[in-house]
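Hey,

Quick one before I head out. I ran the complex with magnesium ion overnight. Inputs first:
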Amino acid sequence: MRHNITQLHEQVKAGNFLAIARGVTIVENSLPGYESLLLSLHETRHARVIGITGPPGAGKSTLVSALLHHWLRENKKIAVLAVDPSSPFNYGALLGDRIRMSEYYTNPNIFIRSLATRGALGGLSAKIIEITDLIREAPFDIIMVETVGVGQSEVEIAGLADCTIVALVPEAGDEVQTLKAGVMEIADIFVVNKADRADAEGLYRNLRILAHEKSTETHETPVIKTVATENTGIEELATEIDKFLETQKQQPAKRLHLMTEKCWQLITAQRMKNINHNVLKSELATAILKDDFNLYAFTKDFLNRSQ
Ligand SMILES: Nc1nc2c(ncn2[C@@H]2O[C@H](COP(=O)(O)OP(=O)(O)O)[C@@H](O)[C@H]2O)c(=O)[nH]1
Ligand SMILES: [Mg+2]
């Protein structure tokens, strides 16, 4: 097994798409060899990871495909990792509008993979980190990770990316007032997509105000208007991403911050490995019927038995 994994790792480093796909499957499903594969990673490549998060239907996939198209014209090699429990994988259809499918399947510069999401988000974040790090071994310039922003998950995802884009749409107008503080913290760039809609201007203005309130003397989070379906604003978005990544190069503190977040997620996943939500629930179903039920005693006992 170790020999095969070593070989697979070499092929991943060489950019062999079949090997990358195989490696992702091994990591995704924790198949035999999964740990040794991760332990052999070198972190020598410098692919930049760009995270795109936001509510379902905000146009994240459309934005990714527009950016992809933009960067392909600059001869960049790009990997896309899509994590979306709410909608089935449809990059093929999206890309079909932009480039011929045959071209996409044989294009040596695009690797696309969707992830099925099973179980708890905590565990999912660790998987995304692991898979992204595996893909990072291959010679890509850019890795885009699309995740649906639901509650905590977008905050977790920020620990993964060198640049995090939060995509919002006019429908989200009122949400801006209630935007979780966390979203403001994690957004390196805001995108107001579907700017073709009449009410986009209001959202744009509100976000500008928010960004301004949070600004420092040297930095204010950019807010970009896009119509992803028409490629409007994509050049500007790509420029802002480049600019942001450029500033990050001089910030070793950010790298340490990202590493800490990633490590935290991995530790959480390890610690939770033996905890099964369904088992927990079914044991509780019996336990709470007892007169002397005590949640803290139950938890302590459950943890002891789960190690
Ligand atoms: N009017 C308009 N529709 C858009 C725009 N961007 C995406 N859409 C549409 O919004 C829907 C959801 O897009 P999708 O990229 O799948 O959203 P995701 O769930 O955030 O990945 C699709 O029907 C897109 O064609 C845009 O800028 N303007
Ligand atoms: Mg999507």
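The longest strand covers residues 48-54.

Talk tomorrow,
K.
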